[in-house]
Amino acid sequence: MEEQSVHENVVVSSWNEWDPLKHVIVGRADLCCIPASEPACDFVNEIPPDSEMRGMYGPRPLKSVEAANAQLDDFARILKDRGITVSRATPIHWNRATGTPDWSAETMTGCMPPRDVLLTVGREILEATMSNRSRWFEYLAYRPLLNRFFEEDPGFKWEAAPKPRLTDASFRRGYLSAEVTDEQRRQWVNDKVFVTTEEEPLFDAADVSRMGKDLFVQHSFTTNLKAIDWLRRHLPEHRVHAVNFPGDLHPIHIDATFAPLRPGLILSNPARQLPDEQKAIFEKNDWEIVLAAQPAHDTRPPLCEGSVWLSMNSLVLDTKTVCVEASEVYQQEQFERLGFEVIPVPFRDVYSFGGGLHCATADVYREGTCEDYFPRQ
Ligand code: ABU
Predict the structure, then answer these.
(1) Which ligand 1 atom is the nearest neighbour of the CA of 250?
(2) pLDDT by residue (tens digit) across 159-195?
(3) Quick one: CA torsion of 204, 206, 210, 216, rounded to 10 degrees?
(4) Which CATH architecture has domain 21-366?
(5) Which atom in ligand 1 lies closest to the alpha carbon of residue 206?
(6) pLDDT tens, residue by residue, 217-238
(7) 357 near 314, Cβ under 8 Å?
(8) What is the pTM of this model?
(9) In this structure, which residue's CA is closest to atom 3 in ligand 1?
């Protein structure tokens, strides 16, 4: 059954990652594909030799889709049981060639994870540019919902960032080649030289961490400086900060790296720490940065592009309650020590479809207003 709006005439409003969650979008695994190699993504060449998908792109194995959907449906039920309204993405036939006058792609990817595509800032939902050709059309999975929110909520601002051209000029040729050594990659990442160039604004919404008036945006493979500037101009009431995490050799999306849990508290990936000079704003405003617990697993599920650090990719329901992957016992223990009630959610079968519990969702409504949590800049 589709849901009803939770607050009369105000459907969309969310200013941060921790206020009480009342309405959320959850992705779906239906018809998801492994995309063919493209300048920003070469997952096909990382598929292990013993996988039935070795060297292949196209629809993911049906059994894995069914397993992921079962866990996504269960997660949606857990949220609904907590009184949270859950809306779902609308899949399209992702296994279809697409293109624009500038490029063509053999397949699309899917509608997991919504967090990568939709950035909710207050009363606005902004469709990100995306930075992979195979994800250019992913916004279509959310258009039925956004259109409905637009009809129901007269104050909802529905926005789309400039669609990128994604010509070869937007990418560094050979950057993802298997011949590039870790040492070379480490140097590039340290120098903030990523696979995407500064040709045009490019960003995935999951590179943005929302903390009221301040937005922290990861400069990464999926978000460039021109996009951070674009966000700054687009959201003039906010302070938009560029951050980066040199320990990550494949930096995409901030939510398995640097995750605010409540005002004054950030969970930080110990393998990907914020450089000291970028910590100043948190120190000046008495925020504590705690290092996340070690993941319970030292390997990723089959056909998963995300890292083992999806262990810390949690969904905060309010400042006392958090959803954590069911097998991530060390992360659960740490949350309990930090004073949270932990809701364990089995989710390992979803990881391969683009991420964990935070990735798999996009905020529609959290209680609260836009606060200034960093008065000392
Ligand atoms: N979308 C989050 C993926 C980042 C990571 O696994 O490290």
Answers:
(1) 7
(2) 999 999 999 999 999 999 989 999 999 999 999 999 9
(3) -70
(4) 5-stranded Propeller (3.75)
(5) 1
(6) 999 999 999 999 999 999 999 9
(7) yes
(8) 0.96
(9) 306
